[in-house]
Amino acid sequence: MTSAVPKDAPKAPRSLGPAAESAPTTIDVASLRDDELVKLLEEGQRELTTRRERQRAEFLVRVVEEAAAVGLDAHAVAMALTPKGKRARADGRSEVKPKYRNPDDATQTWSGRGACPKWLQALLDGGAELQSFRVPPGGA
Predict the structure, then answer these.
(1) pTM of the prediction?
(2) What share of the chain in percent tops pLDDT 70?
(3) How many whole angstroms separate alpha carbon 110 and alpha carbon 118?
(4) How many whole angstroms separate alpha carbon 119 and alpha carbon 106?
(5) What is the pLDDT at residue 1?
(6) 39-59: average pLDDT
(7) Which of 1, 8, 46, 84 is buried deepest, with most CB atoms within 10 A?
(8) How far apart are CA 3 and CA 1, in angstroms?
(9) How far apart are CA 83 and CA 78, in angstroms?
(10) What is the mean pLDDT of the chain?
């Protein structure tokens, strides 16, 4: 019995099993056409983004599970991870540094937002300049 496939015909590639199929492949990028290289870069970037999103989601699930195991809720974890200077107030507003300070009572300050406080308005009505109450940069 003779074979219908000629002896010099190229052989079909054999599967080397799952381990070989998942082994990294070396690509000679210098031999790729520009459009092929662009496609490879786009596919690689998509794969990397997908992996990072999956890792992030898995990490957050682990954090939530660990927090729940020790009795913490998501808000407590978020507060612990947020730097103190970046935290929002309980009512959702962010804290604003003071721009003006009462020279007679350092606990009285004003951020420059909203209505002028009575202590400052009284001083301004007495002829004082607003800039004379300015808090120096870096000094709170």
Answers:
(1) 0.42
(2) 76
(3) 10
(4) 12
(5) 47
(6) 96
(7) 46
(8) 7
(9) 10
(10) 83
Per-residue pLDDT tens over the stretch 61-95: 999 899 999 999 888 888 888 877 666 666 666 77
Q: Is the pLDDT of residue 111 over 50?
A: yes
Please give the single-letter amino acid code of residue 25. T
Query: Can you give the three-state secondary structure of the chain, one letter per residue?
Result: CCCCCCCCCCCCCCCCCHHHHCCCCCCCHHHCCHHHHHHHHHHHHHHHHHHHHHHHHHHHHHHHHHHHHCCCCHHHHHHHHCCHHHCECCCCCECCCCCEECCCCCCCEECCCCCCCHHHHHHHHCCCCHHHHECCCCCC
Q: How many CB atoms lie within 10 A of CB 128?
A: 13
Smallest CA-to-CA distance from 29 within 16, 43, 13, 19 is with: 43
